[in-house]
């Protein structure tokens, strides 16, 4: 049975924001930071919605390379399939992940890898590439949460989100690192982190106008 075809035809990027939390702990610190960022976005009258990636049934990229022809992931038809049009249509993007072993969570890594389909490759060697999302005024903010107290212990968490988004054509307009937070929902007591997250949401919204 052939896989259904996903298409982005007639999809025009708009001044909206989508967000993805990579934490397996529902309603925990990452989700609270995401909600606070989105509150800042909403304050500027920009539509926004977010998902916790553990609620989405999907898997990581399998390297089938079908997207080099189709320009969208057709090798896997799963929960990501419904998200592609929404992600493509939103100029604003928010990613939040706790630190797992010096890096983003496996859910966030799988999500980022599934954005590979937005790259366009040429036939030279090594292959030249570009992104379908370039030059569209796309903006993003990223946030990471770590139990420990140093950037060294946070490891690659922010960079693992920042570098792929930059390559895809997003301008990173805000980064937030939150330290010494582990107990569920404790981030609510960190007034500075909450204030920074809210302001970052406002900044993202304003950058889209």
SSE order? EHEHHEHEEEHHEH
Q: Number of DSSP strands?
A: 7
Largest sheet: 5 strands, parallel
What class, by secondary structure content?
alpha/beta
Mean pLDDT over all positions: 94
- Into which percentage range does the β-strand content fall? 15-25%
Into which percent range does the helicity of residues fall? 25-40%
- How many domains in all? 1
Can you walk me through this structure?
This protein is 34% helix and 21% strand. With 209 residues, the chain is α/β, with parallel strands linked by helices. The protein has one domain (38-148, 159-208): 3-Layer(aba) Sandwich (Rossmann fold). It has a 5-stranded parallel β-sheet, sandwiched between helices. A two-stranded antiparallel ribbon has the order 4-5.
Key features?
five-stranded parallel β-sheet; two-stranded antiparallel sheet; Rossmann fold; 209 residues; disordered N terminus; alpha/beta
Concise description?
This protein has 209 residues and is of the alpha/beta class. Helix content is 34%, strand content 21%.
Secondary structure elements and pairings:
Layout: E1 14-21, H1 29-43, E2 48-52, H2 67-70, H3 79-89, E3 90-98, H4 106-113, E4 119-121, E5 129-131, E6 139-145, H5 151-154, H6 157-168, E7 171-178, H7 191-208
Parallel strand pairs: 1-2, 1-3, 3-6, 6-7
Antiparallel strand pairs: 4-5
Helix pairs in contact: 1-7
């Amino acid at each position: 049975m052939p896989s259904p075809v996903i298409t982005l035809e007639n999809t025009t990027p708009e001044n909206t924001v989508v967000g993805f939390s990579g934490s397996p702990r529902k309603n925990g610190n990452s989700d609270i930071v995401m909600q606070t960022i989105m509150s800042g976005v909403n304050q500027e009258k920009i539509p926004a919605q977010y998902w916790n990636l553990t609620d989405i049934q999907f898997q990581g990229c399998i390297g089938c390379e079908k997207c080099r022809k189709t320009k969208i992931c057709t090798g896997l038809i799963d929960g990501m399939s419904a998200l592609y049009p929404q992600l493509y249509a939103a100029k604003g993007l928010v990613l939040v992940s706790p630190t797992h072993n010096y890096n983003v969570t496996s859910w966030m890594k799988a999500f980022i890898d599934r954005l590979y389909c937005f790259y366009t490759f040429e036939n030279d060697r090594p292959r030249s590439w570009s992104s379908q999302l370039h030059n569209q005024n796309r903006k993003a903010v990223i946030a990471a949460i770590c139990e420990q107290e140093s950037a060294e212990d946070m490891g690659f968490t922010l960079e693992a989100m920042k570098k792929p988004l930059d390559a895809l054509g997003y301008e990173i307009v805000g980064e937030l690192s939150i330290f010494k937070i582990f107990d569920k929902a404790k981030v609510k007591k960190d007034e500075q982190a909450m204030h920074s997250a809210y302001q970052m949401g406002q900044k993202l919204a304003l950058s889209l106008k």
